[in-house]
Specification:
six-stranded mixed β-sheet; 409 residues; Alpha-Beta Plaits; single chain; Molybdenum Cofactor Biosythetic Enzyme, Chain A; alpha/beta
Length: 409
């Protein structure tokens, strides 16, 4: 059961707007038994839309179009799909009247261009839009299906769940995608695949995908099966976990900050952070987790040497002798912020994120991390590749990974 998604809108071809709708639709379609084989973004040119619709409709059982259902001149999805199928557009009087009533209820005069939203492709079924003015449409053509959905995510999601998803589940005849996602830390993408490829290649009916992220790598296992049938995903997943051991930090979709938060809550320990080069990125990740106030005391953004001295109690001697980017400073920051904010644990980050400031002895990307429980204080370092932003993001992630290692021990 092949499906294609076509997102319509010239704005999606710029750097300003990201197509998040297809990211929502893809897993929902997979769970309903439809394999998304292609995604296309097309501008508002009518000929381009017609070509995209005809091509997708000829090769796939299901085509979902997103956007272009508004009242303006550049909203051309309805007329383009009608032309692609050789059908007429018919003005629906009920939709037109409902539009006028909606505007009147808000004490707003409806512009006459809004009546375009009442144009329905001949033979299509209208899909109600309780969150907006643009109704969707469902079309069946030679045992193939086309759905027209609005572009605003809130409208699309509600319409899809209420009006489209039940139909797709019935059409899929019980086939479903079973998947499992492993998040892995401390292993490179190439090393990971070298270790697990001999395992997953033995399962020809399971698709294994290695995904590289900013801070960690992931492995996704996917298999199509009929409802109620046993699959090999669990069996393969257990073998991968045995091979990787503690490098697997999540099999349930938890982020690293969620894992660390759960471990902190379980241990009963509190945390404070001192951030130099990341300047709040670590604290931001920690506070993404609801309920983090149970264990997170706060942080110090000690970017300058003066801030390091005043906020974390580092001595001038330490900075002069070893420098701001050093093992000694990282340890002193972790110890100092723990004491300043009365927490059980202190974690610190200090490094050179570039693009300038590096040297032969201390290159761009060199980052030190400290952790202290008041009795024992230690540090680690990494030379992190990438540009300024990726170095900072990876540094914040590594600090969390280091904290996870400590809590597991």
């Amino acid at each position: 059961m092949k499906a294609e998604i076509i997102a319509v809108g010239t704005e999606l071809l710029s750097a300003d707007i990201i197509d998040t709708n297809s990211l929502y639709l893809t897993p929902e379609l997979n769970k309903a038994g439809w394999e998304v084989c292609r995604k296309t973004i097309v501008g508002d040119d009518m000929e381009d839309i017609i070509d995209a619709v005809r091509t997708a409709h000829n090769r796939s059982k299901l085509v979902i179009l997103i956007g272009g259902l508004g009242p303006t001149e550049d909203d051309r999805t309805r007329v383009s799909v009608a032309l692609a199928l050789g059908r007429k557009l018919v003005r629906n009087e009920e939709i037109q009247e409902e539009l006028r009533m909606r505007f009147a209820a808000r004490d707003i005069k409806m512009n006459e261009i809004n009546v375009r939203q009442a144009d329905v492709i001949h033979g299509a079924e209208v899909l109600d839009n309780p969150s907006g003015t643009a109704p969707g449409q469902w079309i069946e053509n030679d045992e193939r299906y086309i759905a027209l959905l609005p572009g605003p995510p809130r409208e699309l999601k509600l319409m899809f769940e209420r009006s489209v998803l039940p139909r797709l589940r019935n059409l899929s005849r019980g086939r479903r995608m079973i998947s499992k996602l492993f998040h892995i830390t401390g292993v490179t993408e190439s090393d990971l695949d070298a270790r697990i490829a001999p395992i997953y290649t033995a399962y020809s009916n399971i698709r294994a995908t290695v995904l590289a992220g900013t801070g960690h790598v992931s492995v996704k296992l996917s298999q199509w099966c009929n409802d109620g049938n046993n699959t090999g995903v669990d069996e393969l997943g257990k073998k991968i976990q045995v091979e990787l051991g503690g490098a697997v930090f999540s099999v349930s979709g938890e982020s690293m900050e969620e894992v660390v938060g759960r471990l902190l809550r379980k241990s009963g320990k509190t945390l404070a952070v001192a951030e130099s080069c990341t300047s709040g990125m670590l604290g931001m990740r920690i506070t993404r987790v609801p309920g983090c106030s149970d264990y997170f005391r706060g942080g110090a953004l000690c970017y300058s040497n003066d801030a390091k001295i005043k906020l974390c109690g580092i001595t001038v001697e330490t900075l002069e002798k070893h420098g701001a980017v050093s093992s000694e400073t990282a340890k002193a920051l972790a110890f100092g912020v723990r004491s300043s904010l009365s927490s059980d644990l202190g974690v610190s980050i200090t490094g050179i994120s570039g693009p300038g400031g590096g040297s032969a002895e201390k290159p761009v990307g060199l980052t030190y991390f400290g952790i202290s429980d008041g009795i024992h204080t230690e540090s680690r370092y990494r030379i992190i590749p990438g540009d300024r932003e990726s170095i900072r993001e990876r540094a914040a992630y590594f600090a969390l990974s280091m904290l996870r290692d400590y809590l597991l021990k």
